[in-house]
């Protein structure tokens, strides 16, 4: 991941509805959720949600798959992994032991 991709991902997650949408999708992995259910759970109008999901998809953080008339949305965990790795790649100035607590906490997830 390069700096531009990281900035796009962080920008996508820096808005409340998009962050809530992404977190909801992560909780529903690997099945995902249809757009209507996401809108219902977050109490967001469908057209507004569509815009937010499109931004997450362009940032590499969400995917969609059509099943007949229903579009199922999922978190793109590869995009999340790449963003997380970008953020911690140079963790603690070359002293990986300082990142131990962070890695331990992530391992619990």
From TrEMBL:
PROSITE patterns: HTH_ARSR_2. SMART domains: HTH_ARSR (SM00418). GO terms for molecular function: DNA binding; DNA-binding transcription factor activity. Residues 1-95 form the HTH arsR-type domain. Transmembrane segments: none annotated. Keywords: DNA-binding, Transcription, Transcription regulation. Gene3D superfamilies: Winged helix-like DNA-binding domain superfamily/Winged helix DNA-binding domain. This is Helix-turn-helix transcriptional regulator. It comes from Sandaracinobacter neustonicus. The lineage of its organism: Bacteria, Pseudomonadati, Pseudomonadota, Alphaproteobacteria, Sphingomonadales.
